[in-house]
Amino acid sequence: MTRLTLASQSPSRLELLRNAGYDVDAVPARIAEPDLEAFTDLESGLIHVATLKARAAAKGGASGLILGCDTVGVSASRVFGKPADRAHARRMLEAISGTVHQVLTGWCLLRTRDELHVCGVESTTITMRAWTSAEFDAYLEGGEWIGKSGAYGLQWPHDPFVTQIEGSASNVIGVPLERLAEVIALM
Q1: CA distances from 35 to 52, 97, 170 (A)
Q2: Any idea what the CATH number is for the domain that residue 150 is in?
């Protein structure tokens, strides 16, 4: 069993990694996340943030393999990070309802013994059906939008709103498990 430190407070990422068979601990990465819109290339910005998170966890005392991730939704050239409040979450959900959009995760796997790090971006395409007003209200009332990029958390494998996924479903939750396994095998 591979031992990992997750540089994140995300319970969804932690659960995903544990369910995939990793021996993992989570260490919050205490960084001031830069505004991704400040980067001319979104993918470079995602890798930068993921790398900052992994390095912050190492600086805080974590050792071995450290995984940093940063996930956003992209629809019609708009980037959706975590919503600031319920109204912001509703605007995000309204923007992605009934669309085909992307979820991108920048990731960085850092090996502390020699500072080797491998980074990348994984993209998954999501087709989402249109939501009703009552569905928006119920979802927002349930609070599942809190802390989720694009205000939406995939309910895999039986999501009531997603009609198609092209690419890694785990990437939508915040960790591209398939790519992670490939990289760990090479390290």
Answers
A1: 13, 24, 24
A2: 3.90.950.10
Q: For tokens 């956003």, what's the residue?
A: 72
> Which residue range forms the structural domain that includes residue 141?
3-186
85-112 per-position pLDDT tens digit: 999 999 999 999 999 999 999 999 999 9
Total-model pTM:
0.91
Active-site residue (options: 41, 70, 85, 137): 70
Number of structural domains the chain divides into: 1
70 has catalytic annotation:
yes
Q: What is the dihedral of CA 18, 67, 106, 98, to 10 degrees?
A: 20
